[in-house]
Amino acid sequence: MPVDILMATYNGGKYLRNQLLSLQQQTHEDWILWVRDDGSTDDTMVILLEFAKSDSRIKIVEGANRQRLGPGRNFMRLTKYSTADYVVFCDQDDIWFEKKLEFLVDFAEKNFDGAIPCLVYCDAHGYSDADGIITIDGVSQYHANSLREFLFFNGGYQGCSMLFNRRLCIMAAEYRANYYFLHDDVVALLAHSFGDVYFLPKKLMLYRQHESKVTENINVDLRSYLRRIFNRESYVLSAKHYKEKDSFYISYKDDLNDDTRQLFEAYFAFPEKTLLGRILLILCNRFSIGGSKSKLLFKTILWRAIE
Question: Which of 10, 89, 169, 210 gets the most CB atoms within 10 Å of its CB?
Fold first, then answer.
């Protein structure tokens, strides 16, 4: 079953070679890697050209005059090149275990409905770049079974953990909203709003933690966690992700069913409510964070409504 791997690169030469080697070691060999570089100034392009010369499955798109897009739009641009049944995002700095594609494709074959957008994501080990060891045994912390369990996520699932079907890729390639933050936010939001999302509880890669990551490193230190929990400057809703969902809703509300529209409208009303109003809104709409209503209520009581 063919898979398109979409990789957005930018100054990743320090890590890129190991990631590419891990792709070439996949037991599922029927893949094409589509790479778009975002104007690297290190040796990223040299490494890509070297691998592409020896492996015809590696395709570099858009030449030297390419526009600088940033990571989210770089990945989203790559969805326009995909034609395969299944699609995965690939970061430039991780290391995939050899059966990652095999397990994800097998799950999709057994569970996806090709008529609707479907997504499955896996788990990973957190890998310390500084120490060269596994430091986090599992990085997927929240799992939503429905939109009402997902809306209060400040983000999506890790893009590098996802595999999604052709239907969802087309929706991403034709995404209509004017504003979004990252590609994985968009794909997860589309899947939860219009289709099905699954979690495969297998750790199928090393998720590298280092200082130059685009997204925040995962911090499991108890002292840091408690300091963040009881910080009065913390917030329930990230402003950029709230804006992202608002832009999505403006563009897609006519395509949503009535129940889904009501969930979005309740979510958007959250920052305008009093504390009691926010608590009642959560209870009446059965909102949670990945199924944990208590966690969302706890944050609502302690934190500001929005950034």
Answer: 169
Residue 183, pLDDT > 70, answer: yes
Neighbours of 274 (CB within 10 A): 9
Instruction: Kindly report, residue by residue over 214-250, the tens digit of the pLDDT.
Output: 555 555 555 665 566 667 679 999 999 999 999 999 9
Number of H helices, E strands in the chain: 12, 11
Distance, in Å, from the CA atom of 179 to the CA atom of 58, rounded to the nearest integer, reads 30
pLDDT tens digits for 62-96?
865 677 899 999 999 999 999 999 999 999 999 99
Q: Give the CA dihedral 214, 217, 223, 228, nearest 10 degrees.
A: 40
Compute the CA torsion angle 154, 288, 281, 276 (nearest 10 deg): -90
Tell me if 244 sits within 8 A of 255, measured CB to CB. Answer: no
pLDDT above 60 (res 202): yes
Q: Are strands 95-96 and 118-128 parallel, antiparallel or unpaired?
A: unpaired
Cα 243–chain centre separation: 17
Sign of CA dihedral 89, 49, 74, 212: positive
The whole-number pLDDT of residue 131 equals 72
- 268-288 pLDDT, tens digit per residue, is 999 999 999 999 999 999 999
Task: Give CATH 3.90.550.10 domain extents, the chain.
Answer: 3-209
The CATH number fitting domain 3-209, selected from 3.90.550.10, 3.20.20.80, 3.90.580.10, 3.40.50.150: 3.90.550.10
CB 180 within 8 A of CB 252: no
Q: How far apart are CA 220 and CA 176, in angstroms?
A: 36
Instruction: Give the residue among 231, 247, 228 at the shortest CA–CA distance from 239.
Output: 247
